[in-house]
Amino acid sequence: MAAGYRVFAGVNLYHFTGGPCAELVALGAARAQGARQMRCIVAVGNHGRGVIGPCGRDRQVFVDYYPTMRVIVPTPAGLRSVLAADLMPLVQRWTPEAGMNGLDSSLYQDPETAGPPIIRFNPRYLEVVRSGAKTKTTRFRDPAQLGPARLVFESDPEVVLSAEVTGIRHCMVSDLTDQDAQAEGLTTAAQLRKALKGHYPDLVGTDEVDVVTFQINGKTGVA
Known about the structure:
Layout: H1 22-32, E1 40-41, E2 43-45, E3 50-52, H2 56-65, E4 70-75, E5 78-83, E6 92-95, E7 99-103, E8 118-121, H3 126-131, E9 136-139, E10 147-153, E11 159-172, H4 178-183, H5 189-199, E12 208-222
Parallel strand pairs: 1-4, 8-10
Antiparallel strand pairs: 2-3, 4-5, 6-7, 9-12, 10-11, 11-12
């Protein structure tokens, strides 16, 4: 049911490769007919099976597109109508515009907010950062803030360096300089742009990035 109380139906096209669930077919039909906001959704099985709860993939789609939509689900106490967002505790939302967003603090307490902001690195950068050869990082749609920070290297176990973000410069990819590259342990801006493409394949010269300058405090740890 859409926000305007129009009702749309879909059927599960079963296939051994995992054909689309009826809920997603119904949502696709609604969108194709101009419905942008959904009020509620329910799936019912044939042969007297009654109301069926959505699968994990459906729940993620619900949360990403319609987090305030009501979903009718079976429970031991009978049918319930719950918010789509409540079906996915500890969820991270995805949007076409921004990709995967940060953890939703309205649903739960993000443990990463308990200390200084985190800047994540591939573990291959650990030694150049620790040695001071790399004092900048260029980020696309990954904002940082001035002040204390935790540099987290996603190894197993994670390595955490205590640091201070001392500068943030916003610029286009095409405006990156050789000095930016050298602060990242490279030589030229062309090398830096090539390295960024490895992290952000769709990056183009007119995209805006943040050049984050940091210094290590000398305190390290393992998470």
